[in-house]
Design goal:
homotrimer, 9-stranded parallel sheet, UDP N-Acetylglucosamine Acyltransferase, domain 1, mainly beta, 10% helix, Udp-n-acetylmuramoylalanyl-d-glutamate--2,6- Diaminopimelate Ligase, Chain: A, domain 1, 11-stranded mixed sheet
Chain lengths: 306, 306, 306
């Protein structure tokens, strides 16, 4: 776990726009970690998830001296006696993310490792990190991208800006579409399409994104695809699609914007999944899913709350 | 997407053996792309899939000037008025594949990248491409193979001719067979077997093929295995088995020739799958599957058309 | 398959502590392979699995001259006539493993390949093999580890001793936890946690182990995780957990010691799986599983023998 000694006053200055109130005395305090509930100690900068029901109780039992809370947490006698410090903000979760990103996270610096293979015709934007042992084919990569080690990007890929691609991901690998001949042998349909990835996406480790067959596979802005996924040929993932890991979308699947597909799902060729859809983990989706619905099961069906 | 300006007369010359009839005037025409239905334009070389029912309608609404069709498509008044050109062949799909392979697809040239690790005892045939950052152990690789970047092939692998292995595939990684001891600890059974791959196979990106335990894992000629698959120890895939992605065959599974296993399937240890079998996506196969049958579901059962 | 000529007397000397009895004449005999049932020949060192019911019959029909058996196999007239040699031990399976490991298996020698990227702050123990094209971040790696080619280990990983990590595995890749904002966009929760791996583990090829989010992902001693698995953020796998391949554990899952999770399983976020649990292949686990139980299905339920 990353730990780092920070003066509390520096944090307070950084979040001054969000900060509505300070209870207790922040003077000379410091924090050195942001742990989950199970590992909180004296020097943790703790935060109470606004989604919890028993926030007051959580705050009063935390071992941390300093807590980010929303205004529903009261600076009770108990908290006063324990000499706690409450930093009150509207949304502790987004504020803690801001603090972590500012003070704790260190992204790799722009750099192309000398062991990476870069195709002579590849066009690479500004402020890009390409880690060791990558393969970058004849493709276009925009600005501010982080491409971790051992990523393979085949020819015919276009990647926008501000993306993170994790180790072992392979992008624009030839899709496999076969014709079963009369004698049982298989003819592969040749693949000419590419992969187009927008901005602000996350492509997980060891994830496989197939090239389009004749046109392109498209991943729009803001999509987050966790590791071990298979994104098939000619898929079109619209904005802000979230896929949580080990999921497989067969060929020519479309997923509407803001939809969430949980883990270990498989979606049949040509299925159209609408906007704001949720697909439960382990589902086998064999039909189109209308916008706004939640589907689960094998085969997947609409889930109705009971 | 790959685009390329081609004179129509060159294409006509190349397919002269298949060509049964030309309607309209091909003079001075060119094409520059082969797009799917959604992206067709003036210069597309379009083709009407013989499997479609409304071929005439598709032809008459295509934006492309030039179309490959079978003889059931008529050179109607409408097509004449629009000054279309029809190239009539028996099987537009196989002819378009031939054209794409000849004029559009560029395979990597024979070359062993200097960043690839090649075991000193490895035997590598003629006309082989081995991409950057590969690991090639003490194994035998035949002729005309394309091994994309970042593939790992452990010792004890024998690969025939004309195979394509995509990035991130790992072949002959030690299988994991454990014995649970009385105290709960696990002893791994040591692995001595290899992997034998025939000719004309496709091994997808990030696919994992385990070594045999004592004898070998065998993948026969013409098998096509898409990405993210797990092929277990001592599997034997007979000729022309097609696996469409993210599927897992546990240890000692046999699959008869010409069978198709769709995506995200899991097959239990020791199951015997017959010839000409189809396993539907997402299935959990726990029993032997007789030849010629289609099985689906969790647990998988024989599927009877209703 | 590995073959190697060995004098039988050398094997007998090596297993002298286990050996209870020799039937037949071992003089001047040699063996050169340890094959499975289907490939046994004259020179195979065969062994009869104590778990089989028809051991006598197996022994009498084996083509091998020399067999490791337990004392329930009798040196029958038939075996005498065939001039077989029986080496009687208490547990032929553990003895054959011992013999294979001693005489047949060759592990890679300690060596760090020059094409591997090693972070300048990485601490690497004694007798470690790191294969070509690996990426080793700012982490701590103990003694006697074998890290095959093209493995990526991000910063914040601590690995104990005597582990084997197979090609394409990626360890401590940032987990992906998203918050869906009101406008549909996704904010990633930054990841500060690490991965802690104990001793004597097996991490399979192309397996993905996510970093913890705020605290660490933990894999205790003796865990064996086959290939193509996804181990999510903040998982805690206790001692001797066995996962057989292509399985996915979502975030914050705990698995008690000595549990076995078969292939292609998915386990929901936060599920607690007890000790000595078995989860059947293809299961979708959505609830906590008490110790000692077997669960199967989608959704998984307790399996009662009928």
């Amino acid at each position: 776990m990353i730990t780092k000694r920070l003066e509390l006053k520096d944090i307070i200055r950084y979040i001054s726009n969000e900060l509505k109130q300070i209870y207790g005395s922040p003077d000379k305090l410091f924090v050195d970690n942001i742990a989950d509930a199970a590992n909180t100690n004296d020097n943790t900068l703790d935060w109470i998830n606004p989604a919890k029901v028993n926030k007051q109780e959580i705050a009063e039992s935390s071992k941390a001296k300093v807590m980010l809370v929303d205004s529903s947490v009261v600076f009770s006698k108990e908290l006063q006696t324990l000499k706690k410090v409450l930093l009150v903000v509207d949304d502790p979760k987004s504020t803690i993310i801001k603090i972590i990103n500012r003070f704790f996270v260190e992204n790799p610096k722009a750099h192309i490792d000398k062991s990476a293979f870069i195709h002579p015709n590849a066009i690479i934007g500004e402020n890009v990190y390409i880690g060791p042992n990558c393969y970058i084919g004849d493709c276009v990569i925009g600005d501010n991208n982080i491409i971790h080690s051992n990523v393979c990007i085949y020819d015919r890929t276009k990647i926008g800006n501000n993306n993170v691609i994790h180790s072992g991901a392979i992008i624009c690998v030839d899709g496999l579409g076969c014709i079963r001949n009369v004698d049982g042998s298989l003819t592969e349909f040749p693949q000419l399409g590419g992969v187009i990835i927008g901005n602000n996406t996350y492509i997980g480790g060891n994830t496989h994104i197939a090239s389009g067959s004749l046109s392109d596979t498209i991943i729009d802005n803001g999509c987050k695809i966790n590791g071990m996924c298979f994104i098939g040929s000619n898929n079109h993932l619209c904005e802000n699609v979230w896929i949580t890991g080990s999921t497989m979308l067969a060929g020519s699947v479309t997923v509407g914007k803001n939809s969430t597909i949980f883990s270990k799902v498989v979606v049949r060729d040509w299925c159209q999944i609408g906007e704001n859809v949720t697909i439960g983990m382990g589902s086998v989706v064999t039909k189109n899913v209308p916008s706004g619905e939640t589907w689960v099961g094998n085969p997947a069906k609409k889930y109705e709350k009971q």
